[in-house]
Amino acid sequence: MEGLLERDLSQAPLVVLDTETTGLSPALGHRVVEVAAVRLEGWHELATFNEIVNPGRPMDAGASRVNGIYDEDLVDAPPFSSIAQRLWEVLDGAVLVAHNARFDAAFLGMEYALLPPPSTTAPTLTISNAWICTLQLARRLFYFDRNSLGNVARRLGVPTGRSHRALNDAHTTIGILRRMAQQMEKLHLHTVGDVLHAQGGAIYVPWRQPPSLPLPLAEALSRRCSLEIRYQTSSGETDRVISPLYASEQDGMVYVIAFCHMRQAQRTFRLDRILRARLVG
Predict the structure, then answer these.
(1) Do the strands 227-233 and 44-52 form a parallel or antiparallel pair, or are they unpaired?
(2) Which of 23, 25, 27, 160 has its CA at a distance of 20 to 30 angstroms from the CA of residue 106?
(3) Which pTM value belongs to this model?
C-alpha cells in the first residue's frame, strides 16, 4: 500500500465496485447477492467482474423492492465461495473504490471471513486493500444537497443507468470519481494518499470482535459442528438443529447466524431466545 500512496490517482490501479445484498447489516445475517467490480488503470478498464450469488437465505422484502432481486432469481446462482477466488484476483493489489465504502467493505469482508478453511497449500483469501469512498468525498469536499449515488451523479453531470444493480452502479461510481478527480486537481489533491486524506483517512474491512458465547455455542463455532437447540419464537418454543456460521452483536443484542436444518436456509437467532443448546455428534 505504501507504494500506492504516492501514485497519481489517474495512474494507480483502482477497482471500483458495488454490492447488492439481502438487507442492510451483515451483523444481522444479511449477505451479498450481487457483486460487480471494474479494474482501472489510467482510467482504462482492464477487467470487469459481475456475478449474482445465492446467499443461502431469503431476501428481505425491502431489499427486493430497492434492487429488484427476488428469491427466485437466486435459486440457480452459485454461492459466494465459488466466485471468491476470481473476484479476489480482480481486487488484488488495487485501491478499492465504492460509494458508501464502509457498507461494501463490511459485506465483502464478512463473505471472505465465512469461506471454508483453505487447504494446507492454498492461501487464505482476505481483503486488506484500502478503500476510497466517493460518499465521504462528496460529504467533505462538495457539499451537495443530498449525497445519494444518483444525486451526486446528476450534480456532477454523470449519466446513470438502472440504479441499484451492481454493475450499473459501479460504472456510475467511475464517472463520479473521474469528475471528482478533475475538481480535486484544482485543490492540489493528486495522489492516492491525497485523496485518502481528503476523505478523512483510508477505509478498511472492519475488524470484528466476536461476542462472548455460552460454551456449547462457542464450541460449535470452533469445531464447525451442529447444535440441537430449543428456541423461543413469538408463537412458542421450537426444537431444531442448527449449524452456527458466526456470532455478532448489534445495538447491545447478540445474534447467532446459522444454517437452520428445519428451514434448510440461513437464519438469524437471538442469543437470549436460545433456551437450551447441545452439541450434535
Answers:
(1) unpaired
(2) 160
(3) 0.94
For 98-156, write each residue's pLDDT tens digit.
999 999 999 999 999 999 877 666 678 899 999 999 999 999 999 999 999 999 999 99
E strand segments, the chain: 14-21, 32-41, 44-52, 95-98, 131-133, 227-233, 236-250, 253-260, 265-270, 274-279
What is d(CA 144, CA 240) in angstroms, rounded to the nearest whole number? 51
d(CA 105, CA 107) in angstroms, rounded, equals 6
pLDDT digits (tens, 9 = 90+) for 204-234: 999 888 899 999 999 999 999 999 999 999 9
C-alpha cell at 256: 447467532
Helices (H) and strands (E) in the chain — how many of each? Answer: 10, 10
Residue 140 carries which DSSP code? I
Residue whose C-alpha cell is 439481502: 22
CA quadruple 236, 242, 244, 248: dihedral, nearest 10? -10
pLDDT over 90, % of the chain: 90
Query: What is the grid cell recorded at 206?
Result: 472492519
27 within 8 A of 248, measured Cβ to Cβ: yes
Look at residue 161 in the predicted model and tell me its pLDDT: 75
Element (H, E) at 80: none
Partner residues linked to 240 by β-bridges: 229
With contact defined as beta carbons under 8 Å apart, do 102 and 133 qualify?
Answer: yes
Q: Which of the residues 30, 44, 99, 164 is marked catalytic?
A: 164
